[in-house]
Design a protein that fits this description.
The structure is a single chain. By secondary structure, the protein is α/β, with parallel strands linked by helices. The protein has a single domain, classed as Pyruvate-ferredoxin oxidoreductase, PFOR, domain III (Pyruvate-ferredoxin Oxidoreductase, domain 3, 3-Layer(aba) Sandwich). Helices cover 39% and strands 24% of the residues. It contains 8 helices and 6 strands. The protein has a 6-stranded mixed sheet. A hairpin with a 7-residue loop joins strand 2 and strand 3. The mean pLDDT is 90.
């Protein structure tokens, strides 16, 4: 990997964005690359935004990704995908979970959840891959593993060895949830 890879992971508190970031960072480090990571929690415990910047390369100095510099955005929720779109570089890719989570202003009736978000993103001439990660997780028997389905899709796009992803994931999740997480990863990996 000659050029640094800038990955932005965006979601809502409770979606497992941080676990996904940690798995990505560990896979890259075990592949012999330099990794810098920065987390931003915006009222995450109350359903607010959670954003992680992950830079991967031969030599990486700063963890922060500026607007227009992300090579890939992994969005765990549609509105977060739209909110962070300006960080994607021209020609970048976005992997978007089709799940919608209403923010506080929508739940209180002060705002409406935007319609046609995926179409709005596609109109910006970026490559968009969607996944029903929540549906995959439900099919695996645990809706909390939707983040790992997203990690599976990410793994398919990045090219690090699949076995390495599985090894790291098995170490990062509790033993009692290992089987369901590995199943969700495989299902996400198959979505391309």
């Amino acid at each position: 990997m000659n050029k640094a890879l800038n990955v932005l992971l965006v979601g809502v508190g409770g979606q497992g964005t941080i676990l996904a970031s940690n798995v990505l960072a560990e896979v890259a480090m075990r592949s012999g690359l330099s990794v810098k990571m920065s987390e931003i929690h915006g009222m995450s415990q109350r359903g607010g935004s959670v954003v992680t910047h992950v830079k991967i390369g031969q030599e990486v100095f700063s963890p922060l990704i500026e607007k227009g510099e992300a090579d890939l955005i992994l969005a765990f929720e549609q509105l977060e995908a739209l909110r962070w779109l300006e960080y994607l570089r021209p020609g970048g890719k976005m992997l978007v979970n089709t799940q919608s989570i209403a923010p506080a202003p929508v739940m209180s009736g002060k705002a409406q959840y935007p319609q046609g978000i995926i179409e709005q993103i596609q109109s910006k001439k970026v490559t968009v891959h969607t996944i029903d990660a929540l549906g995959i997780a439900s099919g695996c028997g645990n809706t909390k593993v939707s983040n790992v389905a997203m990690v599976g899709m990410l793994a398919n796009k990045l090219g690090f060895p699949k076995e390495l992803w599985l090894e790291v994931l098995a170490e990062k999740v509790p033993a009692r949830l290992r089987e369901v997480n590995l199943h969700a990863f495989q299902r996400g990996f198959e979505c391309s």
